[in-house]
Amino acid sequence: YYARRNNRVFVFEFKDVRLDSQTISSCDFETIRQKLYNTFVFNEEGKPKGVKQLANVIENKLPEIITRIDTTVSDAVLKVYPVLVYSDASFDIEGINYYLNGEFRRVIGSVDDRFQVKDLVMVNLNMLMKLENYFRNGKIDLDKVVNEYLAFKESKETLHTVPFNKYLFQY
User: Fold this and answer.
1) How far is the C-alpha of 37 from the C-alpha of 50, rounded, in Å?
2) CA-CA distance, 36 to 19, in Å (whole number)?
3) Which of 51, 138, 140, 145 measures 20 to 30 Å from 131, CA to CA?
4) Residue 170 pLDDT class (50, 70, 90 cuts)
């Protein structure tokens, strides 16, 4: 899904996946990391999943969208916000967005010079639905809150792993 507001572009990818109980109860970092990778980057067959799908859209589809479909874009550099929407609250914990952002940065290739790609943001579908009226009424501006979140998590090393949903609770 693509949404643009002035020079800010949001690229959304939705994943309706669950972290199985066997993986959760394993308490093994490598088992959990591998499951996250196979669920959100590339599956066991090498097929792109959420993070790589977002990277592919930004690398390959977004230039075409800007050139052929959304032709009212100014010449300014576009700030691109990759957003991974998920349904399982198991992904709300510290470190998952941090890990997947690292994978996103690793798998994204060269991007059009017109794009400034921001860090990956993961958000729970339920949270988006709860905030829908705030977005519509202008009480919360998605790009503003995402920028503030990105600045917040970069402000101290101990905050790098804070998930977006947890940040929103203090907003």
Assistant:
1) 10
2) 8
3) 51
4) confident
- Per residue in 61-86, pLDDT tens? 988 888 777 767 667 788 999 999 99
Question: Which residues make Cβ contacts (< 8 Å) with residue 152, sequence separation at least 6?
Answer: 159, 162, 167
**Structure tokens belonging to residue 157:** 């090393």
Angle at CA of residue 118, ends 116 and 122, nearest 5°: 150
Cβ-contact 124, 53 below 8 angstroms: no
**What DSSP string runs through 63-82?**
HHIIIII-TT--SSPEEEEE
Residue 27 CA to residue 23 CA, distance in Å, equals 8
- Per-residue pLDDT, averaged over 134-155, amounts to 92
Alpha-carbon Rg for the chain in angstroms: 16
